[in-house]
Amino acid sequence: MELDFNELRDLLTVINQTDIAEFTLKSGDFELVVRKSSQNGESLPTVASSAPLPAANAAPAAPLPTVVTTPLPAANPPAPMPRANDRLVDIISPMVGTFYRAPAPDEPPFVNVGDRIRNGQTVCIIEAMKLMNELEAEVSGEVVEILVDNGEPVEFGQVLMRVNPA
């Protein structure tokens, strides 16, 4: 399995913004373990990776470089945008990724401003680490604002849409 630096950084960012305490990714001779630890009450991820040991009869391999990892500070979600109407319910991005309004480029959007939605209805897709994550509404009502353009990157905790609940 090959992960470039940007994919690894994105993976660590997504894991850091969840309640996952430990994450292990194994593929062939590659293993990545990410554990969050508490230090001074602050949640911090740590990273360890390993490669398999060479077979006993294998020729000596070049020494592996030593990599020292330092815990990354936990990301703080951005402050929510102020609302004009406190009755509106925000639909918030649960992860870092790319926002898509439709299931495919040639398909109509899941929802438009003015549409009535129901609880559990798919309202958009957030692509993270090449995985398409359908985001479902947690409230029924009318979509009054869509705050993100199609194909735009979004942050964890970012308001995507506002709904006037039914």
UniProtKB/TrEMBL annotation:
Transmembrane segments: none annotated. PROSITE patterns: BIOTIN (PS00188), BIOTINYL_LIPOYL (PS50968). GO terms for biological process: fatty acid biosynthetic process. One of its GO terms (cellular component) is acetyl-CoA carboxylase complex. GO terms for molecular function: acetyl-CoA carboxylase activity. The keyword Ubl conjugation does not apply. It comes from the Bacteria. This is Biotin carboxyl carrier protein of acetyl-CoA carboxylase. It comes from Leptolyngbya sp. NK1-12.
